[in-house]
Design a protein that fits this description.
Layout (H helix, E strand, L loop, with lengths): L9 E5 L5 E7 L2 E9 L3 H14 L5 E8 L5 E5 L9 H10 L12 E8 L6 H19 L2 E14 L1 H13 L3 E2 L3 E2 L4 E8 L2 H14 L7 E11 L1
Helix pairs in contact: 2-3
Length: about 230
């Protein structure tokens, strides 16, 4: 869960897991791109440290990352390559990646490109293209998800009515969070878009389903992965 409310209500990020790798060669130089989801700067920098150990004989471990729903944390490193030829092109590849037509909202993403020098100089322009293309190609192939801020709402209903109401809510397309239990009632939790019109529509729908006997109560928000 994010600690601070953001301006953005959703963004695109890498699917949860160990990350994604892609490699290609340009004039005998190997470019190994590793993408990993990162929630903090510490997570992003840990990836660099991990790859320095794994590829300890590589000449460069260049990196870039963008964090937060509002993409307000952005860092990059050339790691010994000529200034501006690696880290910045990698960061721009992350920031400019379209996740939908006209949408650039990629975040919580760390990218590291490990380079093994092949003995042929690429020149400044060649390095910029190589590092940019390395990240862009990996992003095209990597699995992505939409991460959305959803409002958690609860509905308390008698135990005997809970199963049917939950099935009705699911059939209506509502995302259900974890169900809880109290002495006299079952607590159904819904994850709804955090917008006034969506919450009002859900409240009206619930009233219709239960003849006005159940009330939608709002709780906090959670960031939840949604398949794209």
């Amino acid at each position: 869960m994010q600690e601070q409310e953001s301006r953005a209500s959703g963004y695109t990020t890498l699917a949860a897991g160990d990350g994604f790798r892609h490699e290609f060669e340009i004039k005998r130089s190997r470019f190994i791109t590793v993408l990993r989801r990162a929630a903090t700067e510490e997570d992003a920098r840990a990836l660099v440290s991990e790859l320095r150990r794994e590829f300890h004989d590589a000449r460069h471990h260049c990196s870039a990352f963008v964090l937060g729903p509002d993409r307000d944390v952005q860092r990059s490193s050339d790691d010994g390559e000529p200034s501006g030829t690696a880290g910045i092109p990698m960061l721009e590849a992350l920031l400019r990646r379209e996740t939908a037509p006209g949408v650039t909202d990629l975040s919580d993403m760390s990218a590291v490109v490990v380079r093994y020098f092949g003995g042929i100089l690429l020149g400044a322009g060649g390095l910029v293209r190589a590092y940019s293309d390395s990240v862009s190609t990996a992003l095209e192939l990597a699995p992505m998800v939409q991460r959305r801020r959803l409002r958690i709402c609860v509905v308390r209903v008698p135990h005997a009515a809970a199963g049917r109401l939950e099935n009705d809510l699911r059939s209506a397309g509502y995302a259900m969070a974890e169900t809880g239990y109290e002495a006299q009632s079952t607590v159904l939790r819904l994850a709804l878009p955090d917008a006034a019109e969506d919450l009002a529509a859900a409240s009206d729908r619930l009233a219709s389903m239960t003849a006005g006997s159940a009330v939608l109560q709002r709780e906090g928000t959670e960031w939840i992965d949604v398949p794209r």
